[in-house]
Specification:
The structure is a single chain. By secondary structure, this protein is α/β, with parallel strands linked by helices. The chain has a single domain, classed as HesB-like domain (Hypothetical Protein Aq_1857, Chain: A), CATH 2.60.300.12. Helices cover 15% and strands 42% of the residues. The protein has two helices and eleven strands; from the N terminus they run βββαββββαββββ. An eight-stranded mixed beta sheet has the order 1-2-6-7-4-5-11-10. A hairpin with a 5-residue loop joins strand 10 and strand 11.
Length: 131
Amino acid sequence: MIAGNVTATNNTPAAPTFRTGDERLIKVSASAAHKVSSLLTKQGRPNGVLRVAVIGGGCSGLQYKMDLQDQPANRDILVESSGIKVVVDPKSALYVTGSELDYIDALQDGGFKVKNPNAASSCSCGESFSA
């Protein structure tokens, strides 16, 4: 099962409705999980989520956008991988299915990297792709 329906168990009347998914949607490496966890803690969001989205732009037409948030939004797909929670909107899920998020701690070519089997091509800087 890539995704199934779940209603968030939050005591607020407008609790977001989201689906749960598994690592077939997106997988997080141990080094990326450690970095995300550290960033969430620094921001005072130890129970927060990492949002991974695909937006138009970049050299090849599509690029990744990552953001730290408090909780999933309506219609999101929530995946727990390597001890962190990742949320993906349904449209972005079409592009990231099967991807792995990694983090490389290096001065040159370091940072978060997405290994995406759906990318038909990517630009030389590795920041955008086409599908």
